[in-house]
Amino acid sequence: MTTTRIMGPRNAEPLGPLDPREHAWREDLADIALADRIAVPNYVVPLIQEATAQVPLLSADRADAPAASELLPGERFAVLDTGHGYAWGFSVADHYVGHVRVDALAAPRSDGAEGLVGPEDALLFRGPAVKAEVAATLPMGARVRWADHDERFVRLVGGPGAGCYLHRRHLLPPAGDPSLDWVDVALRFVGAPYRWGGRSRAGIDCSGLVQVARQIAGHACRRDSDMQFADLATDVDPAAARRGDIAWWPGHVGILLDARTLLHANAHWMACRIEPLADVVARASALGGVAEPQIRRPSIAT
Q: To the nearest whole number, what is the mean pLDDT of the chain?
């Protein structure tokens, strides 16, 4: 795995602060896209790779490092550096920066059409029939390359599950399906275990729930709760809150099902659950933190 480095100005001060969660830079190198924003000794042209499996995006290049996020199968990763068996770079989908095992990445395929798995997790079959042997399961949000087979199935031609068959009911356009209700998608995660950095029904965190549900329904969405809340322009009076509004506390985010009911992935229950908003407020108050959430409403266009 080889990246291309371009010499930058030496011994220069950074031109300004950039959030390292979404801007890939270190003191020694940076993404070449940041060349006009920060001064470092070297800039790197990203090498685009693809996740061959569901794999954590870690905060450091070691197995015991805390997870920052997660790549789903078929999602692309821009590699800027490698070392200790890990690649450092960012997820192409949301630009989130972290470290991924090198052995979980491969060169992406370009043949066939691109698709997004959803709005449910999907079984992959070894033949084009629902009675065929099941080869694997792909989480909603995974990305596939496919070719037509018949009116019910497509054949995967590249990436995870290549050679297997996927039912068309589990195939969405690459950018998601705006006809889907994103809150309905989020409700499909109820009962999933809580996992810091997780983005699937095998384990998901609070902002991962919001992100994946909105992406499946065709809405761009950044990774962390503060980013998501900052992108929402319309403040809402709690008395006027409604289904689909976002409730945010520092470090936590949830989805309102109505003015009194919250859907969220949380470490209290270690699961994605629906519960009265008042119960969440009471817990936050008992812990001495910010009790009442701020509420904002996504626009139809976002």
A: 94
